[in-house]
Amino acid sequence: MIDVLVIGGGNAALCAALMAREAGASVLLLESAPREWRGGNSQHTRNLRCMHDGPQDVLVDAYPEEEYWQDLLKVTGGVTDEHLARLVIRASSKCRPWMQKHGVRFQPPLSGALHVARTNAFFMGGGKALVNAYYRSAEARGVQIRYDTPVDAIELDSGRFVAARSGAQRFEARACVLAAGGFESNRQWLREAWGQNERGEWPADNFLIRGTRFNEGVLLRFMIDAGADAIGDPSQSHCVAIDARAPLYDGGICTRIDCVSLGVVLNRDAKRFYDEGEDFWPKRYAIWGRLVAQQPGQIGYSIIDANAIGRFMPPVFPGEIADTLPELARKLKLPESTFVETISAYNAACRVGTFDHTALDDCRTENLLPPKTHWARPIDTPPFYGYALRPGITFTYLGLRVNDKAQVHFGGRPSENLFVAGEMMAGNVLGKGYTAGVGMSIGTAFGRIAGAEAARVVTQQTGVCRAEA
């Protein structure tokens, strides 16, 4: 019998597998995707949000625990477990040497990401390189890996893990870590979560999936139906406004439209609907998918002029370009008169002070609803640009309730040998909202905890701690 079974193939699963193996346990990892698509949503990540009390190689300045906590508190609106959140924050200050031991490399942030130079450590080669490094390390240490093995059921005995099933295959283990992701690629579940709006629309029908197509939530649904304690709102997710022309799955980071704070965003009626300058983009980019999802037709349009060019990470696909605002409205198929009226009203309301996109500057609007709090400058310098936006779901927040040992709970009681990490429990920390890099912080912290705790259970059961092969 295997000691520790890890179900999943992304960052959290790999951290769990490596920690359990380091502790001497034999480990089998089951990844639902084929080898070429391994890694789940982790392959699309770029960085890790890190607490640090002083400069550390690629991290400048300091980012202390309390500031990190306040940033998380603000974006979640208080819908978070402070004890578990602070556990993640503290763990983020200690994990990088361990990551580097397993082949992960870091680099200074590129231009276009300088707002997070102090708070986030960027992976050399991005998430795909991180995933590949972990898989190489796992294979070298004797972790067994099975691809194309989606788990559809768990055998339980009074909350205790017995075995996992993948079709006709059955996998027994002394302990198990669940890290199989959320349900973002399950369209029917998204429909159930979002329901039908007052316009008779099913918003989820217009969602694009930024992440992996393999996260259908089969294991999450099974566990909830089996009596595991759930946490989180199924409609809450990491939901970003992305290019409306992005692919249905796996568009990743390159589909994001990052010029929102430099202009205005309109709905299909050519009306503004939210403050584009509320806060720095890394703290607000993940609210815009949900905002667009609440608009008619689940579509929005980011409008900028020539003054914004060069100040944001350019999108993969060029936007619509026009020499006049009426021409841009026609190209975007928006009502021309309302479009021009909305932009004109915004321009007239701008009170331009000292523009500084690296600070919460004093460029704002007056007597305009919704306001634009920072970086408000008239959109009056041709050419003008427009980008159509759709909601892009990265991962969902509905998950399993845990404690600080990453244990799955049944009726409030923690399981002896069943643990969970990553997206399947992120809702304990992320009730809503997001800030750049915190998903990787949660996955890394709880993946490592789950792996270590699973190995500890094995040692208690067998009295043996095998050395790594």
TrEMBL record:
<protein>
    <submittedName>
        <fullName>Tricarballylate dehydrogenase</fullName>
    </submittedName>
</protein>
<dbReference type="InterPro" id="IPR027477">
    <property type="entry name" value="Succ_DH/fumarate_Rdtase_cat_sf"/>
</dbReference>
<dbReference type="InterPro" id="IPR036188">
    <property type="entry name" value="FAD/NAD-bd_sf"/>
</dbReference>
<dbReference type="InterPro" id="IPR012831">
    <property type="entry name" value="CobZ"/>
</dbReference>
<dbReference type="InterPro" id="IPR003953">
    <property type="entry name" value="FAD-dep_OxRdtase_2_FAD-bd"/>
</dbReference>
<dbReference type="InterPro" id="IPR050315">
    <property type="entry name" value="FAD-oxidoreductase_2"/>
</dbReference>
<keyword id="KW-0285">Flavoprotein</keyword>
<keyword id="KW-0560">Oxidoreductase</keyword>
<feature type="domain" description="FAD-dependent oxidoreductase 2 FAD-binding">
    <location>
        <begin position="3"/>
        <end position="429"/>
    </location>
</feature>
<dbReference type="GO" id="GO:0016491">
    <property type="term" value="F:oxidoreductase activity"/>
</dbReference>
<keyword id="KW-0274">FAD</keyword>
<dbReference type="Pfam" id="PF00890">
    <property type="entry name" value="FAD_binding_2"/>
</dbReference>
